[in-house]
């Protein structure tokens, strides 16, 4: 039977040479592909080829082009990932560079399928031209194709990048969207290994990114800053920026913002950039460049709606580490005024602001997110004292205030409140406050209150933490441990079913 299908396929292919028979032949091929097992039609295609089908793309009739694309799509779907590219490499090179976007999309879909299934399906030496052609499509005028090319290029085998990055330099001469696509690839692969980062740096991609901050296109600048922020949180990224003077250049741009009429659009990007660096290297930033955070503190104090969201996110991110907390505290009144403002926003802000402020405060109070803190390396005593004082800034009765927020009817606010409560309970002083708060433990153990999945999980984290606390008597600890054993989503109906089955 397989030979019969090959003969039929060959006859259909021959009919493609006659224009009047072409639509019928394409539909016959389509029917064959639709109705026969993959193994048999794949064998036929390998024997006869697909070149004649590909040639049908070069006609003026749009309906014929669409039909041809449908046939080719069916052809490729019959193959395992990467196999069609291996069997018809020259055809794919043609399809990837075709003038019609629907054709290019057809080809790039198959490359994506191969690379995302296994980056090594297509060995680099044999298929480097396919990888390069795909990478060049990040400049494609069709945004969907360009984005798909970015996804593929970010996930190629490491051996492909020397050639691919060399060819991508041409994209730096294209529009800002294409340049951002290049930078996104560079940042992504730089995070994979120090060796790939060195390759990107050697080809001057990082220097070019910093240079682009001089662009007159504000939105483009913001995008570049976002990408530089992702690069700067990696040790090799920030080390390069410092060692090669690029960080100093960026600081120079910050100083120039005072006279920039569009500063309101740019400040959030710079704020986030330096926040990312300060999270990893707080001493270096706060000792030498503390003034770059003046805008952040001003935004929080003034509740500037344009800057407040990123200011809160950045402050919380910087303060998640012990070193970050100590550096912030060293700023004195400037920082404490910001803490007071965050607490005011928690009490009086709108829903979005309240959630962000709660998450920010949780970052400042929490110590668990710092990898330097462990059972064998307890938190610095100074941090214990500082965080307790910061929490007291929430209200004259801070735990009662937080308890009330945990009962807020808005799910996002409740979830953020439980996250803050979990941060508070990472300290002995926090556990003791909970133990002294009338009704709080009963509230936590009450399963009759309906929460979202995320809020249930956040509350469960609090209870797991309290279950090991010496602040409670054995009866309460027993109830907390029972809750932990039952899990976050246990319900009374489950208990009833279990009892009935037992009877």
UniProtKB/TrEMBL annotation:
Cellular component terms (Gene Ontology): cytosol
Entry-linked InterPro entries: ARM-like, ARM-type_fold, PSMD5
Pfam families, alphabetized: Proteasom_PSMB
GO-annotated biological processes: proteasome assembly
Name listed for the protein in its UniProt record: 26S proteasome non-ATPase regulatory subunit 5
Family: Belongs to the proteasome subunit S5B/HSM3 family.
């Amino acid at each position: 039977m397989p030979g019969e299908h090959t003969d039929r396929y060959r006859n259909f292919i021959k009919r493609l040479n006659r224009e009047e028979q072409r639509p019928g032949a394409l539909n016959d091929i389509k029917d064959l592909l639709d109705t026969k097992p993959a193994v048999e039609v794949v064998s036929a295609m390998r024997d006869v080829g697909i070149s004649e089908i590909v040639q049908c793309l070069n006609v003026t009739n749009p309906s014929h082009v669409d039909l041809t694309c449908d046939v080719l799509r069916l052809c490729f779907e019959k193959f395992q990932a990467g196999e069609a590219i291996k069997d018809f490499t020259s055809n794919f090179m043609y399809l990837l560079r075709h003038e019609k976007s629907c054709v290019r999309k057809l080809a790039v879909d198959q490359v994506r399928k191969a690379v995302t299934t296994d980056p090594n399906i297509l060995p680099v030496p044999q298929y480097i031209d396919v990888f390069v052609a795909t990478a060049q499509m990040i400049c494609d005028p069709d945004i969907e194709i360009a984005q798909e090319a970015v996804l593929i290029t970010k996930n190629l085998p490491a051996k492909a990048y020397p050639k691919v990055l060399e060819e991508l330099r041409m994209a730096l001469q294209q529009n800002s969207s294409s340049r951002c696509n290049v930078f996104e690839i560079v940042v992504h692969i730089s995070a994979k290994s120090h060796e790939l980062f060195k390759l990107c740096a050697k080809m001057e991609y990082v220097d070019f990114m910093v240079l682009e901050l001089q662009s007159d296109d504000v939105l483009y600048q913001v995008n570049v800053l976002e990408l530089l922020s992702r690069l700067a949180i990696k040790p090799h990224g920030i080390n390069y920026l410092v060692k090669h003077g690029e960080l100093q250049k960026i600081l120079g741009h910050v100083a120039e913002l005072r006279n920039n009429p569009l500063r309101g659009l740019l400040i959030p990007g710079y704020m986030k950039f330096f926040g990312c660096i300060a999270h990893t290297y707080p001493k270096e930033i706060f000792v030498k460049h503390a003034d770059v955070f003046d805008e952040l503190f001003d935004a929080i104090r003034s509740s500037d709606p344009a800057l407040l969201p990123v200011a809160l996110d950045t402050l919380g991110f910087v303060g998640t580490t012990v070193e970050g907390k100590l550096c912030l505290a060293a700023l004195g009144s400037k920082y404490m005024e910001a803490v007071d403002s965050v607490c005011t926003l928690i009490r009086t802000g709108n829903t979005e602001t309240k959630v962000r402020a709660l998450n920010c405060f949780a970052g400042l109070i929490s110590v668990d997110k710092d990898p330097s803190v462990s059972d064998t390396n307890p938190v610095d005593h100074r941090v214990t004292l500082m965080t307790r004082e910061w929490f007291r800034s929430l209200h004259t009765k801070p735990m009662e205030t937080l308890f009330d927020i945990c009962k807020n009817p808005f799910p996002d606010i409740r979830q953020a409140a439980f996250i803050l409560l979990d941060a508070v309970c990472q300290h002995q002083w926090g556990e003791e406050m909970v133990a002294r708060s009338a009704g709080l433990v009963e509230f936590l153990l009450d399963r009759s209150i309906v929460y979202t999945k995320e809020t249930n999980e956040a509350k469960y984290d609090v209870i797991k933490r309290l279950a090991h606390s010496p602040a409670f008597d054995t009866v309460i600890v027993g109830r907390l441990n029972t809750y932990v054993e039952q899990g976050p989503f246990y319900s009374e109906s489950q208990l009833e079913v279990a009892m009935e089955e037992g009877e």
